[in-house]
Automatic annotation (TrEMBL):
Record-level Gene Ontology MF annotations: zinc ion binding
ANK repeat windows: 44-76, 78-110
UniProt-annotated location(s): Cell projection, Cilium
Family annotation (InterPro entries): Ankyrin-MYND_dom_contain_2 (IPR052452), Ankyrin_rpt (IPR002110), Ankyrin_rpt-contain_sf (IPR036770), Znf_MYND (IPR002893)
Coiled coil: 356-383
Name recorded for this polypeptide: Ankyrin repeat and MYND domain-containing protein 2
Length: 454
């Protein structure tokens, strides 16, 4: 029998309580009980999965899905789905989980909004990115079937898997995409690449022409199609398995080693986007056009930010060769560039070797300066401690709050959009002031401790 709204057993009520409290053990135990239906509905028509998604509890969502929770249940009084609740919670991992479990992103709530639109409305841009970038395998498999009068499908089914791997990447570095292509011998054929490009262009067109336009996905498909197109040209001209294309993409100019070919290539891909009226395209062009080649931000970072919502490329652990996140291997000489592994380092060395020594000297100089600055700061902060000590407790608090506020303002100015939502901002500054006043408390404690030792 299908569950009815508000008809909950005692155990089911307990289940909802444990979910909201994050008690995974009790939730697991109750899900094993015969008196608990995983898709039961509370009086608002919310399932346990919706509750877990809204509370942002990843493990709980996983557990419920394992127990057969219906990801597309649409009994909520305002037509909200679990994906919509995930979007509202701002937890992108949960949004991804729901989509992977087959959540329909095109469903609208009682006022006609999709999950992505709801997430955007509350400023949860990471979730918007996840939802907009998600591309279900069935939509690609569609092209592996013969349609209408065509004798054969647009995409041979053996190419669907390898192509799907390429289009679901969130790392859009051209070298990374070439890696993904090289990884699969099926894709290393001119004919195969051309078929993939045709399909990507068709998906791009569909994204732009459907009722719920998805410009993000359209730009992404177009961009990958451009890289594949270029790969087929290189395969045609040279028999080197795309090594020369990679070399071109990495080759740095004199004297700063900036990869000019790569920058120009990405800019050209964006410029070639066939739907001039697209807002996202205009936004990209506006951000890229005023930047001189060789300055920041690069076309790659602007594109990535638009498509994945990822910000902050500077000082992050991105591989210099392929843009993969989480790179840890440093060049042992200059210690300024990082790579995923030795393979990435080897590929980059032909151009990096020209600047490695110069970078090393630059780093050493910077380190010296930093050490000097640190000593100076230490001296200054000692002075500050005495000032804070002399104030009354009330004044002390006010002083720290003021300091933390100005700090958040400054960091907000430095960071570019997306602007944080009002609630996020106030939460952040509250936390910041909390931790900084705690720090002061600690500092004054240790200060007194030091004094008593003296
Ligand atoms: Zn790499
Ligand atoms: Zn180096």
């Amino acid at each position: 029998m299908a569950p009815r709204k508000g008809e909950l057993t005692e155990e089911e009520r307990q289940l909802l309580t444990h979910i909201s409290q994050g008690n995974i053990q009790e939730t697991r135990r109750l899900l094993g009980s015969k008196d608990v239906r995983v898709n039961c509905l509370d009086e608002h028509g919310m399932t346990p999965l919706m509750h877990a998604a809204y509370k942002g509890k990843v493990d709980m969502c996983k557990l419920l899905l394992q127990h057969g929770a219906d990801v597309n249940c649409n009994e909520h009084e305002h037509g909200y789905t679990a994906l919509m609740f995930a979007g509202l919670s701002g937890n992108k991992e949960i949004a991804w989980l729901m989509l992977e479990a087959g959540a329909d992103a095109d469903v609208v709530n009682s006022v006609g909004r999709t999950a992505a639109q709801m997430a955007a409305f509350v400023g949860q841009h990471d979730c918007v990115t996840v939802i907009n970038n998600f591309f279900p395998r069935e939509k690609l498999d569609y092209y592996t079937k013969t349609q209408g009068l065509n004798k054969e499908p647009k995409l041979p089914s053996k190419l669907a898997g390898p192509l799907y791997k390429v289009i679901t990447t969130t790392n859009l570095h051209p070298v990374k995409i070439v890696f993904l292509i090289k990884e699969n011998p099926l894709l290393m054929e001119i004919d195969a690449l051309k078929k993939c490009c045709t399909v990507l262009d068709l998906i791009c067109e569909k994204c732009m022409k459907q009722k719920d336009m998805n410009e993000v996905l359209a730009v992404k498909m177009h961009y990958i199609s451009c890289v594949m197109q270029k790969c087929s040209t290189f395969l045609q001209d040279q028999e080197d398995k795309l090594d020369n294309f990679i070399k071109n993409l990495l080759k740095g100019r004199d004297p700063d080693c900036f990869p000019v070919f790569q920058e120009k290539f990405i800019r050209e891909c964006i410029r070639k986007f066939p739907y001039c009226e697209a807002t996202l395209l205009q936004q990209l062009v506006r951000s890229i056009a005023p930047v001189e080649i060789g300055s920041d931000p690069t076309a790659f970072s602007i594109l990535t930010q638009a498509i994945t919502g990822q910000v902050g490329f500077i000082d992050a652990d991105f591989c210099t060769t392929c843009g993969e996140k989480g790179a840890t291997k440093r060049c042992s000489v200059c210690k300024l560039v990082i790579y995923c592994d030795q393979n990435c380092q080897k590929l980059h060395w032909f151009t990096h070797k020209k600047v490695c020594k110069m970078l090393k000297e630059k780093r050493e100089k910077q380190e010296e300066e930093a050490a000097r600055e640190k000593r100076r700061q230490e001296k200054l902060s000692k002075k500050d401690f005495f000032l804070v000590e002399e104030m009354k407790p009330d004044e002390q608090l006010a002083a720290t709050e003021g300091a933390s506020n100005s700090q958040t303002d400054a960091s907000r100015e430095a960071e570019c959009p997306p602007a944080p939502s009002a609630t996020e901002g106030s939460k952040e500054s509250k936390e910041a002031s909390l931790s900084s006043s705690e720090q002061t408390a600690d500092a004054s404690i240790s200060q007194t401790a030091n004094k008593s030792e003296e």
